[in-house]
Amino acid sequence: MQPRLNPFAAAPESMKAMLDLSAAVNAGGIEHSLAELVKIRASQINGCANCLHMHTKDAREAGESEARLYLLNAWRESRLYTARERAALAWTEALTLVAESHAPQDVYDQAKAHFTPKEMVELTMLVITINSWNRLAVGFGFVHPEDAKHAAAA
């Protein structure tokens, strides 16, 4: 991907608001391991290499297993994820693909069974925030560090 625009330079006030939102969402009650899975899954759906690089690295550093990272795209077929994680991943997919899914009632009910009302809001804000970052990164051509190293070597 070619860099298109640096939104931090072009609109620092807007990007500060985005960073502040991220900090507030990250300070919420959703456990870090689950938050990283949500961020990775949304980033997989959105094809965001920059966010995938960042959040798989963060998940590994926090102790996430390679197997769970490799199988995340196929979480429905794996027994490596808890019922709470499955509910969060289904909700993440429903909201990330909201134009197609319309956030179905059964997916909401499944999430509601595993999350308090406050956690439902925090989870939803987490999904909203990573989807926003994905759109910034993909739209403006953020280059992840491995691509930058590859380009420099070439």
User: How much helicity do the residues have?
Assistant: over 70%
Number of separate helices: 10
* Percent of residues in β-strands: under 5%
Compute the average pLDDT: 95
What's the short story on this structure?
By secondary structure, the chain is an all-alpha fold.
What structural keywords apply?
154 residues; single chain; mainly alpha
Question: How do the helices and strands line up, and which of them pair or pack?
Answer:
Blueprint (H helix, E strand, L loop, with lengths): L6 H4 L1 H15 L5 H15 L2 H13 L4 H6 L11 H14 L1 H4 L3 H10 L2 H24 L4 H9 L1
Helix pairs in contact: 2-9, 3-4, 3-6, 3-9, 6-8, 6-9
Descriptive overview:
- The chain is mainly alpha-helical and 154 residues long.
- 74% of the residues lie in helices and 0% in strands.
- Helix 3 runs antiparallel to helix 4 and helix 6 packs antiparallel against helix 8.
- It is globular, with a radius of gyration of 16 Å.
- The mean pLDDT is 95.
